[in-house]
Design goal:
It is a single chain. By secondary structure, this protein is an alpha+beta fold. The protein has helices at residues 54-67, 72-89, 93-107, 111-119, 122-130; strands at 4-8, 13-16, 19-22, 28-32, 39-41. Helix 1 (54-67) runs antiparallel to helix 2, helix 1 packs antiparallel against helix 4 and helix 3 (93-107) packs antiparallel against helix 4 (111-119).
């Protein structure tokens, strides 16, 4: 089976091409066969007031593309620039790998996987921002 497979918890909500879909009372798997479908798990969504750090701002901008609130063509170059700016800060090999994946997925217009790669950097950003400054 090809395509994206979503494993949904009971009552979990997901946004697919602008429509909010809620799972039933049991766990289920949903196969998304359309390659360019815009998908966002609402449990993973970043709310505007949470987009206060550099990585979260890029994730939020990518999320707007997935939700249909931002034009993918207009957002493309600014998103590439933001990812490049992040690569100037996150220089460790693991973060660089995630940023490279995000860039590659963005170039191939796979916004879901680009967002997934970017979200992997959030815990590292949280640790860096939690360090007391002297």
């Amino acid at each position: 089976m090809s395509g994206l497979v979503l494993k949904l918890s009971p009552k979990e909500r997901v946004l697919i091409n602008g429509a909010v879909i809620e799972n039933g009372d049991r766990r289920s798997r949903l196969a998304i066969m359309t390659p360019d479908a815009n998908i966002l798990r609402l449990r993973d969504a970043i709310h505007p007031e949470e987009a206060k750090t550099p990585v979260r701002r890029v994730c939020y901008a990518m999320q707007l593309v997935l939700s249909g609130d931002s034009d993918p063509k207009e957002a493309h170059l600014p998103l590439l620039r933001q990812i490049e700016e992040l690569s100037q800060v996150f220089t460790d090999p693991d973060s660089r790998a995630h940023l490279m994946q995000a860039t590659q997925h963005l170039i191939s217009e796979d916004h879901y996987r680009a967002l997934k790669a970017l979200r992997a950097i959030i815990p590292r950003e949280d640790r860096l921002l939690a360090v007391p400054r002297q």
